[in-house]
Amino acid sequence: MNIDEITKKADVLTEALPYVRRFRGSVFVIKYGGAFMDDPNPEIRARMARDIAFLAAVGINVVVVHGGGKAISRAMSASGLQPEFKNGMRVTDEKTVAIVEDVLNNEVNAEICDMLARQGCEAVSIKGNDVFKCKKLLSKGEDIGYVGEVESVDVSAIQKALEEGKTPVISPIAMGIDDNHAYNTNADVAAAAAAGALKARRLVFLCDVPGLMRDPKDRTTLISHLPVSEVAKLKEDGIIGGGMIPKVDSGVKAIENGVRRIHFIDGYMPHSLLLEIFTDTGIGTEIVSPKATL
């Protein structure tokens, strides 16, 4: 390694230092999801785990809320059940919700905790059932089974883990307010609800795209900084659409509940999490409230 490369590394550390100081002791919620979760190359997931472990190591209180849709579909197929979707939402009957609960609370959650542990981050598994309360969600007025909309968040177990210096890893399962039954929920919505309840400083969505782009086919049109007041117009113009809508909508709600900024970054990009949080320019899209400070 020559002196120029060494100097560049030192410059990166110097740029990160003010952010490390500012964010120490803050709560960051990370929605862990996207295609990279199922990538056959384990190094991609390990790389993200290292970045999360880095945040925890510099004193940031990290909370991870994860998805796992593809793992659920695989488990259903293995059980002889055919996944069914209506209006983009999984139809979740009694047999399906049992599989969803097992896959998310055990298989996926355990894998993420194990990856973090291998990076020196003390992770603790928390079942969403113990955190999220929900009401039945209808899909365009149609009952699609045990699918819920998060209504409230009990943060006591999360805060206890953070006080013990651990990183909570939470599944998006919720308990029904009316029937005390397990429900599958949208992980983006669950993460945003947790961030709002915790008054997190940051909510970060790991995505399959670099962020919000004015032209989805042109990465040079990435919107780096977006005041929350401009979101409605971008949705109206179709710039925010498809799978980004539930992420953006839940993120905006989190801002309304006190989260300072939300971020959308590419889970595949090496060190995208660190580049977004610890550099002046960032690497993805941030949406901020008018009252937001760093």
Structure description:
The chain has 9 helices and 14 strands. The protein is of the alpha/beta class and 294 residues long. The longest helix is centred in the middle third of the chain and has 25 residues, at 94-118. The chain has helices at 3-23, 42-57, 69-78, 94-118, 156-163, 187-198, 231-236, 244-256, 272-278; strands spanning 27-32, 61-66, 85-86, 89-90, 123-126, 132-139, 142-153, 167-170, 173-176, 182-185, 202-207, 225-227, 261-266, 285-288. The strands form 3 sheets. The protein has an 8-stranded mixed sheet with strand order 5-8-2-1-11-13-14-12, with helices on both faces. Strands 6-7-10-9 form a 4-stranded mixed β-barrel. Helix 2 links the parallel strand 1 (27-32) and strand 2. 40% of the residues lie in helices and 24% in strands. It starts with a helix and ends in a 6-residue tail after the last strand.
Record field, number of beta strands:
14
Mean model confidence by pLDDT: 92
Order of helices and strands: HEHEHEEHEEEHEEEHEEHHEHE
Described by the principal axes of the CA atoms, the overall outline is globular
The major β-sheet equals:
8 strands, mixed
Low-pLDDT segments: none
Helicity, in percent? 40-55%
* Span between termini: 35 Å
Structural class: alpha/beta
**What strand order characterises the main sheet?**
5-8-2-1-11-13-14-12
Number of helices: 9
